[in-house]
Amino acid sequence: MSMSTATVPTGPVASVRTRPWSHSLPRALHPGAWWLWALGCAVAASRTTNPLILALLVAAVSVVVAWRRTEAPWAMAFRLYLGLAGFIVLVRVGFRILFGADGTTILIGLPRIQLPEPFAITLFGPVSAEALLSGLYGGCQLGAMVICVGAANALANPKRLLAAVPGALYEFGAVLVVALSVFPQLAESVQRVARARRLRSGQGRRHFLRQVMMPVLADSLDRSLDLAAAMDSRGYGRRGEVAAGARHLTSVLLLLAAGGMCVGAYAALDTSGATPGWLGAVALGTSAVVAGTAFRLAGWRARRTRYRPDRWRAAEAVAVVCGLVPAVVLSWLSSADPTLAYPSVSPLVWPGLTVPGLIGLLVAVLPAWATPPPPDSAGSKPSPPPADSTSPKAVPAPTDPTISQATPPSADPTSSEAASPPAGPADSRATPPCRPRPDPAATDPAPPAPEAEEA
Amino acid sequence: MIRFNQVTFTHSGADRPTLVGVDFEVPEGEFALVAGRTGVGKSTLLGAVNGHVPHFTGGRLAGRVEVAGLDTRQHQPRDLAHLVGVVGQDPLAGFVTDSVEEELAYGMEQLGVAPSVMRARVEETLDLLGIADLRGRTLRTLSGGQQQRVAIGSVLAAGARVLVLDEPTSALDPTSAEEVLAALLRLVHDLGVTCLIAEHRLERVAEYADRMVLLSGGGAVRAGSVAEIMADSPIAPPVVELGRLAGWSPPPLSIRQARRLAGPWRQRLAAADPARHPRAPDGPTADRPRPPDSDHSGLSARGLTVVYGQTVAVRQVDFDLPAGQITVLMGRNGSGKSSLLWALSGVGPVRAGRWSVDGQDLAGAPAETVRRSIRLVPQNAADLLYLDSVRAECAAADQHGQRPAGTCAELLDRLAPGVDPALNPRDLSEGQRLCLAVAVQLTSQPPVLLLDEPTRGLDYPAKAALGSVLTGLAGQGRAICVATHDAEFAAAVADRVVVMATGESILTGPATSVLTTSAIFASQVAKVMSPQPWLTVAQLADAVHRDATAQEAV
Predict the structure, then answer these.
(1) Chain B residue closest to A202 (CA)?
(2) Under DSSP, is residue B69 helix (H, G, I), strand (E, B) or coil?
(3) Burial category of A347 from C-beta neighbours within 10 Å (exposed 0-12, middle 13-18, buried 19 and up)
(4) Pick from A378, A384, A386: which is nearest to B138 by CB?
(5) Under 8 Å CB-to-CB from A328, ≥6 apart: which residues?
(6) Residue of B52, B113, B396 lying closest to A229 (CB–CB)
(7) Which residues of B touch A389 (CB under 8 A)?
(8) Per the CB < 8 Å rule, is B108 touching A226?
(9) pLDDT score for A168
(10) Residues paired with B87 in a beta bridge
(11) What are phi and psi of B175, to 5 degrees?
């Protein structure tokens, strides 16, 4: 052990300095970065129905969630999104069976049921592999997109996201964020009420909805009113005085921007060729600039400051790129190789996978390592659950393997003590682990020189 | 600092005003106590201070409410955020962010305080409230007392000079409540913060208050010095009741004052035996316990263990609930009381242990079997109720308990007379809702009833009513267990006391010995009369009464 420490700079500070990954000190990633990453993955999912690609994408997203989420309530909601996605797939496949569909490879020969006149629908009928698969593929696509959104919800602190929206959109952001956070809170409420329900007899499956949903809905309504009152009493929505002229200017600019957006969107989506192609880009670009100016102006009204804001640093950019790459790769794939992105069900073809697609998907999993781990306090530290709660514990985020290098064995004062002659001054023992120092002994198998010379 | 000038407030849709002609003033730096029975409008009064009433709640407000010279008619709550801080009963409900530091900064962010100033003020506030070691913690993992201190700190950091607190300690155990009150008093004394605090458990705050605002029902409000109002207040802490019984004027407000006055009393009662006098007006006495019931032997648990993840909530606890007795379970928050009750009810998780009721083994039995013997009323009684009227709840309970129709309604009428059966359970008062939950759980006549923190949010008369209901049930041979922090309630009803700490049962014994010797769980009367083992004012009153009649007879 002392041999290896002799060739590597000792002490936590020294070893961190040698690594370029100093951003991986535990901290919360900018919530916007998680959302962009997740939306990139969702776009990727929307560009294919290939179940292999979708399964890989969901796996990648789930790995990132498992490694980078905290123990916060919104992080616990990820499993609900998984369940929702599974439900979507089942519904899509179920509908194919219920309403029948054409196909040649018949798996089960169900009888057809012709409904009477007012509904001219035929139910059931022979179940074909083609119909089942097309339902499955469609369901998988939608389910994967739901899971991507769920991942963003689990990873990004919705309340920090509120802080990231521009000042002018603050109210809108607040509404959105409160709405988003209702879902996980509902999950907690459902757990509590469902448990209380078991204390009372006469609970059949029949009454489940009413017995659980009534208290839960009343509860969440009370809670949201409480929160609104608390925010109000703490100054949420306070406004500074703004001159009438500036207000009018903001309104005019916003209207112009909205109009420009409409023109731009029309031009960009028009496929008939009646509008020139450049018009869309120009109109969209100009109105984006105008809208940005209007938001800046409107933002002056709200005099709000930010306590230790989330900064956009290298790790955030990495996460966003990791989301963009699969989106771009699959968008390209869907036009360049449609048979791969949309595997045919008629005739039945085994879905394939190509190297570029695989690489594009693997990039999506990189944030599990390339982003800093969430801070201890936010959850990875095991904290005892409240005594009256049976809420399942979320998976604690494993420590980043790269972090463990930060404390090499020689950080232990006893080993450095053993390596240095006892002649050193008394305080030299305290200094080595805390201070970076030149490493004259890098090639020398002998113990590092005592700090006495340095001091 | 706070001035109410002829304030009359009517809730929208109500035919009578909640507050009528309220007129009082709280000068700067005072600690003012708002008291009154449940539902008389304490929260409305407090809400009016920062304009929450009527800007947020609606309704008609006549008169003027001024805070530091600002009229709430012209200022919304958010415009007063730099001046008035509001702290509610459940701090978690009012938290906007999720970590301690961010929560402290939230108010300042809204006010547009410069980032550098903000950083410094957050640090100061952390130290001021003694929560610096919690700075990075997630708010929901904190204990109740810690959360409440963060809530106070968060409004203080935003610069609030007036603190409005609506029952800030009602959900806390005695020690956490002391922590919060100590922090508040420090702010009042050192920083000159003005405090307006509503509290049911007057025994906790009365001695610290400079001024008292009493809402006596019908909208009328009296304000004055605490001693002056307490002299004839219908709600008063035991120490004041004791003062009235003894004829001390003005009544003592603290244990210290009462003890100094009580010397002659202790001498006079030295010959009396506390065991011969009932602790509640209709309760049994310690020397004549209820007759043992041949049908029931009660509950007996051995080696009960509950584990959540890595945390041992209950560690090999042996626990008995004799039939016909009320056992009170005490201990700080998180000591495993709730986990123990949930485990016994057959719903909570159990790692190991056996328990039986009247000889029938219930470990591992299906929930339906356990429910026939043991019923639990959880801390949040409203979770049990889901139908849209009291009548429907009662009918459902009768049907599921296979009892004749009307059993539950009759029970409810005994517990809480005059509840309108057409009302939605959510519109009932806290006490009525609790009684409905108890009635629903008792309809099937289980031999064992467990209650988790039933006195939370109840005022003195409601607590007395609950106590007599429980005493009556114990008289029918049921085994009753109440987990509570409320030492006064325990003193009035408990036959036996079990104290838990870190998941273990550390002390079991008759109430008279446990509650009189404990430093934390002793009632006020016990502290005043120590070393004589008296527990409640009713007990003393009975002794004095008998003493007087005996002398008359002579």
Answers:
(1) B400
(2) coil
(3) exposed
(4) A378
(5) A360
(6) B52
(7) 308
(8) no
(9) 65
(10) B165
(11) -70, -45
Asked if A193 and B383 touch (Cβ cutoff 8 Å), the reply is: yes
Could you give the angle at the alpha carbon of B424 between the alpha carbons of B421 and B425, nearest 5°? 90
In whole angstroms, give the CA distance from residue B390 to residue B385.
Answer: 9
Whole-number Å distance between alpha carbons of B163 and A156: 34
* Measured CA angle at B541 (ends B538, B542), to 5 deg: 85
Whether the Cβ atoms of residue B239 and residue B252 lie closer than 8 Å to each other: yes
Is A377 within 8 Å of chain B by CB? Answer: yes
pTM higher than 0.90:
no
Grouping H, G, I as helix, E, B as strand and the rest as coil, residue A360 is helix
Is A232 within 8 Å of B308 when comparing Cβ atoms?
no
Q: Which two tokens stand for residue A5?
A: 């420490």
Q: CB–CB of A238 and B78 under 8 A?
A: yes
Q: Which of B102, B104, B138 to mutate to test the interface with A (most CBs of A within 10 A)?
A: B138
Q: Return the residue of A nearest to B450 by Cα.
A: A199
Helix (H) or strand (E) holding B529: helix B524-529
Whether residue A346 contacts residue A103, with contact meaning beta carbons closer than 8 Å, is answered with yes
Convert the pLDDT of each residue in A90-107 to its tens digit. 999 998 888 876 777 777
Q: Which two tokens stand for residue A106?
A: 């018949």
Take residue B384 and report the two structure tokens written for it: 């049990």
- Work out the number of other CB atoms within 10 angstroms of the CB of residue A179: 11
The complex's ipTM works out to 0.86
CA distance B305 to B339: 9
Selected for mutation to probe chain A from B76, B148, B163, B383 (highest A CB count within 10 Å) is B383
- Alpha-carbon Rg for chain A, nearest whole angstrom, is 29
Contact: A199, B384; criterion CB under 8 Å: yes
Tell me whether A198 touches chain B (CB under 8 Å).
yes
Report the alpha-carbon distance of residue A114 to residue A189 in Å, rounded.
44
Q: Give percent of chain B with pLDDT exceeding 70.
A: 98
Q: Distance, in angstroms, between B257 CA and closest chain A CA? A: 38
Region of B6 on the Ramachandran plot (φ > 0 left; ψ -120 to 50 alpha; else beta): left
In angstroms, the CA B382 to CA A191 distance is 15
- For residue A212, give the 3-state DSSP assignment: helix
Structure tokens at A80: 């609900």
A375 pLDDT exceeds 50? yes
Q: Which residue of A197, A202, A376 is in closest CB contact with B396? A: A202
- Beta strands B2-10 and B84-87: pairing type? unpaired
Best mutation site among A177, A201, A210 for testing chain B: the one with the most B CBs within 10 Å?
A201
The answer to whether the beta carbons of residues A218 and A192 sit under 8 Å apart is no
Sheet holding B374-377, edge to edge: B374-377, B448-452, B479-483, B326-330, B496-501, B504-510
Task: Pick the residue from chain A with its C-alpha nearest to B103.
Answer: A307
> What is the Cα–Cα distance from B189 to B204, expressed in whole angstroms?
18
Residue with tokens 């409810």: B412
- For residue A193, list chain B residues with Cβ-Cβ distance below 8 A: 383
**Closest A-chain CA to B337:** A387
pLDDT of residue A181: 58
Report how far residue B317's alpha carbon sits from residue B320's, in angstroms, rounded to the nearest whole number.
10
Amino acid present at A329: V
Query: How many residues does the structure list for chain A?
Result: 455
Comparison of pLDDT for A27 and B105, the residue scoring more: B105
Segment A117-149, tens digit of pLDDT: 777 777 777 788 888 888 899 999 999 999 999
Instruction: Give the H/E segment covering residue A367.
Output: helix A367-370
The residue type at B211: R
Tell if the CB–CB gap between A307 and B348 is shorter than 8 Å. Answer: no
In 3D, which of B57, B50, B59 has the Cα closest to residue B82?
B50
Listed by start position, the domains of chain A span 14-164+310-370, 244-300
Contact A215, B386 (CB under 8 A): yes
